[in-house]
Amino acid sequence: MYRVARPSLFSFLFASNSSAFVKRPSGKPVSTTLPIFRLSQVWSALSLSLLSVPSFAQSEPNNELERYTVTAIRPYYDETLSRIFPQYEFDKRSLVSPLHTNDVLLQSPSVSLNGQGGQIQSISIRGYSRWRIQTLLDGVPIVSDRRAGSSIGFVPPDFIASASVLPGAASTYLGSGAIGGAVNLHIESAQRPYLMVGYSSNQQLKAVSYAGTSATAASVNSTDSSGITDWNISYRSADNGEDANGNPLLDQFEQTGLFLRHRPEDRIIKEAWTLYSDNNDIGKSSSDFPESRITTYPKNTHWLGKIAFESHLFTGNVWWHKSRLDTSVLRPESRINDSENEAFDYGFNINKDTHLKDWDLNWQWQVSGREGVVADEREFTLTPAESASPNVTTASEITNAFASELAYEVRTLDASEINAAAVVDASHQWERLSLALGVRVDWQHQSDDSIASTPQSSDAQSNTNVSGYLGANYRLSPYWAAGVYVSSAFRNPSLTERFYAGETPRGTVLGSAQLETEQALNVQANIAYSGEQLQGSLEFFSQQIDNYIERITVEEDVLQYANLDSATIDGASYQLSWQSSDSLLDARLSGMWISGEDNSGNSIADIPANSQRLDLGVQWQAMRLFAVFAYRASKTDIAEGERALDEVFTLDMGVDWQLNERVQLQASWSNVTNQQYYTSADDKAAFAQGESVQLAITYLL
């Protein structure tokens, strides 16, 4: 009923990925993965409470169930980490299209919104954000030169099936960008062609997507060796929304996406896929709008892909990502600053697993790089036009009301980097004890290409770092297990932090070629329970960072990146899941408490407020009803560039109804009580959207 494909380097490292699930008439998912070790039942049960098969199968009556072949692509080191602590995957079971891709990640208690809002809103993991967390799309790293960090908003949510979250230092496997953790989005594989149409009332958001596949019952059972191809096309557009008080938000956007994947049969190449996303007229939802600044992203394009291959000696991947982001910052009655950012990222790896006596050993070789990382900036001065109206408010009206004149044009960044790394890990299972350890040796070279530089010049920087981890898990009883995980991590300064010099919405920002690499030590302990109907885990974590990099004010409206002494983040998170014996009721309770400060006792930026969340679900015949209760505590310990937050309680609810074997109806009501609250503690963050109704209909073709 299933087959397991060979692993890929940047596929991710979660135990739930290593399991294939099929739907039985009882309605309960059943793991078909061969047991890795005795504790696997504990971790599988934890993951099981959060996983679901596609919603078509979930809501179908038992006598209409269809059976599909499930392919589970798992990284080789998934097995290693799954031995020492629980891992989770989050799907869209309690979400209704159209939605934001971040909504899938926010189901994890470790994930919070960060920075300013809009379509390219970024996130934090346990208080780490910006360049300190790694975002991946089906294993392909998403790197951004924005200080806010990479955003997955360019990925149409309809392309995403689920997301994995790894909190804590993960540099050993994922390198410099994962000092605070990582998330990996898993691309959906259409089992049958379908057409989906959606609408959201707050932004007047319209969404339509079409997914198709060459896989049919006839082709699966035939001797055709051409393989299977699937694809997805999505179009979404939205106007500016409103907060709870009816004030306008600058969160408009237009998005077109295309995804194409081919899985050959009996070939060295096991999978090849590509994704293209074109995004236009994206608004940056900020408290500066519209009086002080109006920031938009006129164009944001991404083209990326991956090829996975396998031989009898090793497996591996080749990937690439070409991106462009245009930014326009309008200061009414003053000036316009436009910038264009481009980059080409690439990488490949080979990896192999082996055995040494009773130990499982894995190794991999990684090479990645960034070329043509360029930022061009232009400034225009504004003078009132004769036809100017005194009551103009929108960006286009202001631009038309003023005559613009080019003040200067300059290249603010032109740089590149190359990275090579070797990774080795080992694991062993005794009767009750599991042990895993790994080490990474990493070399990176960065250069400023805007001048004639050589590897020996002061404008070229090379760094060699070593990171590693050690973890253990002990089975206390058939239901209880406890584990500990210690890991070191590093983060090399980004190309922007080293070489950028230009204008941003917060003023002039200067890089520093003399920045030191951030170094971190992460310690976490967990205890997990797995019963027949109840599963859960509690985690305590502490992470210290030395050479913490932050922007500091050197003079009025001028900031520069600099190393601070150190910072520490401490906290605890939990997840508790329950499902009734008849699978008609389910609930999940999760939350996080967190604090962070530097070595002088001052609060550091991007630490989210404490939060708790309760997800409830009811399955009634072909209908699933769900509700999400979320509580965010107040936050008064703030850093420079932040504002205090009041506590807020929000409620979302929805229904998913399988009308018949072809038609699926969905409806939801978000922010039911129309709460007015800021999306994050950033002092430029705008209010969240007010109440909104989402509707969607999916038709199986």
TrEMBL record:
All copies of the TonB-dependent receptor-like beta-barrel domain together span: 274-671
List, alphabetically, the SUPFAM superfamilies matched. Answer: Porins
Coiled coil spans:
none
- What topology does the record note for this protein and the membrane? Multi-pass membrane protein
Give the Gene3D superfamilies listed for this entry: TonB-dependent receptor, beta-barrel domain, TonB-dependent receptor, plug domain
Pfam families on file:
Plug, TonB_dep_Rec_b-barrel
Q: Where in the cell is it found?
A: Cell outer membrane
InterPro entries linked: Beta-barrel_TonB, Beta-barrel_TonB_sf, Plug_dom, Plug_dom_sf, TonB-dep_rcpt-like
Signal peptide as annotated in the record: 1-20
Name the UniProt record assigns to this protein? TonB-dependent receptor
